Amino acid sequence: MEVTNTKRRHLRYWNFQKLPDDFKVQPGLRTTASSELTRFQNFVKYCPPFDIVLDGLNVAKMFPKARESQVLLDVVSQLAKQNLRVLVLGRKHMIMPSARWRKDEMEKVQKQASCFFADNISEDDPFLLYATLHSGNHCKFITKDLLRDHKACLPDAKTQRLFFKWQQGHQLAIISRCPGSKITFQDILSYDTVVQTTGDSWHIPYDEDLLERCSYEVPTRWLCLHQKT
Fold first, then answer.
1. Domains detected in the chain
2. Strand pairing class (171-177; 183-186)
3. DSSP-derived pairing of the beta strands 201-206 and 221-226
4. Which of 13, 35, 189, 219 has a Cα at 20 to 30 A from 1?
5. Where is the PRORP domain positioned along the sequence (predicted)?
6. Which of 227, 168, 178, 179 minimizes the C-alpha distance to 203?
7. Please, how many CA atoms are within 13 Å of residue 111, restricted to the half-sphere of its CB?
């Protein structure tokens, strides 16, 4: 059930230079102040490629009972310990001291990661995708957002399917967090979740009835059929 080398090459080189330009005209970027958009584009242009791009506000709110700045710090610290170049995308209210956003914790975040705090972004996702694609195929991103709006804006069904496959191979999910302990990430699968055959056998991915999962998550169950001889 491994992805073929041809598919890997197709996805690896799939429009990585073209897509950032495409996202410049998406609704989320159109509604952003031109000065802020220019500031962001220059920021990304002059930064070295990133390994991980975080939707900071989204990640910080993944565990509602915990303080947002502490959650974000835990995630960034763990990634930084792996010598990964991390970009945190957020909003300026995150660096205004408050009960939910402690100054000392946010200062630690900024010491361990590059950070871009926007004044007023109607949508964070286009910035997240722009920075990820600009950094190259090795770069992963973290957000709980399903990115449905962006798939819907792509020009045709083929491009939407390719984006979905790219999303599956680049969007990291946080499974759990223990205070003061390790963040658990869901591994990105190395195989493709489509019907696969070896000639006399078939492997069909499926979901249990009523199972809910994110669009970038893949079925974990397979129906295996073998032709009788």
1. 5-186 (3.40.50.11980), 193-229 (no CATH)
2. antiparallel
3. antiparallel
4. 13
5. 30-224
6. 227
7. 9
* Local mean pLDDT, 10-residue blocks, the chain (229 residues): 39 46 49 74 93 95 92 95 96 94 98 91 78 91 85 79 82 80 72 67 72 58 76
* C-alpha–C-alpha distance, residues 174 and 65, integer Å: 16
Query: Which DSSP helix (H) or strand (E) runs through 115?
Result: strand 114-118
Which token pair is 76?
Answer: 């960034």
Q: Which two tokens stand for residue 125?
A: 């996702």
Looking at residue 132, the DSSP 8-state letter turns out to be H
Provide the H-helix boundaries in 89-124: 103-112
* Of 95, 78, 98, 193, residue with least CA distance to 142: 78
CB contact at 8 A, 139 and 51: yes
Ranges of beta strands (E only) in 166-220 are 171-177, 183-186, 196-197, 201-206
What lies within 8 Å, CB to CB, of 198 at 6+ separation is none
With tokens 């949508």, the residue in question is 123
Beta bridge partners of 177: 183
Q: What is the rounded CA–CA span in Å between residue 156 and residue 179?
A: 44
